[in-house]
Amino acid sequence: MASVVGVICEYNPFHKGHKYQIDRIKADMPDATIIAIMSGNIVQRGEFAIMSKYERAKIALECGANAVVEIPYPYSGSTAEIFANAGVEIADKLGCDYLYFGTENFKIEEIEKIAVIIDSDEFGIELEKARSNKDSSFITAKSIALKKWGYELPTSANDMLALEYIRAILKKKLSIRYRNILRIGARYNDTGINDIMSASAIRKYYYDNDEFVSVPSVVEDCYKRTAKEGLCIDKGCVERLLHSFSLMYLDVRGKYFDTSIEMLSLIKTMAKECNSSQEFVNSLSSKAFTSARLRRAILYSMFNVVDLDFNPRFTTLLGMDKKGREQISKVKKNWEFTIITKHSDSKKLDSVSLAYLEKNYMVDALYNTLLKNQSSANSAFKNAPIIKRS
Description:
The chain is an alpha/beta fold and 390 residues long.
């Protein structure tokens, strides 16, 4: 029987490195069904995706994925641990036999050992000691604690997520097997112009030039159409939104998920002191808090995220081909996990999951107003899965 392979991703945007990964999976398992488990319109670093989840799903299908489903917000816009755990949970519920992910600097055996250490009681004790220094961020404290075992904490995005994927699989005691593919081309934060660029570099080039570069040739026309029709995020509009919200509506004593009065007060102070919205967004960082954590805090406040169930109990189907449809049909009968394909499917959700789905609708409605070519907020409720016919 053919295997089902999960790829937890953001595709922000889909680039040649992502195409290389899918091609490698197809070379390893020619008959496999590949399911991309992808961030929605808010991504893990606390940012709005450069293109909508449906545009990114369409490109992923053209480049070899058989189905694309969503990691819903707020899971998609939270820490690496929460993001990875949600992705693994969805992969398991969709019947994935394998999980493929990229790595950069660490061997898979090292990452496995670090995963076991981090979830030990001894590490918890060392972490509490390291966190006694309030000037250190949580990541710095984890790095200090891990040195007792002679290991460095992964710092590249791919290695950090690989660690969290393995931790999630081990903690859940899942039968999902995992394989890593060594990243090729530019590193995650590299901004240089070359054949295989990072997603960060491609986004920067687009924001500077209104043009996409270093994307797979099979979808070049799709990227050109997206840019020409203004279906990409308006960066300046997003900056003004975050700045004005932080000035006017951010409640420094609000009980939001993964935030503190100290963090929210810092954001409010920076919003008042910065001379422009761009300066505000670019200056969002401190010794104690990473820029991603501060951006996430603003969004938690904006969408009133006060808590978070550790495991999502639904996903939204964004697109599929014939092969993907066969797998989705198999698992859609699982009443413990809901695959949203149309609005009426929301009736299957419990009250907690329904509240999360409503937050996703809020995110999508706002997202439509942040595009260069704005569309009605109500149109976010009319989206249907993309069906690839050939």
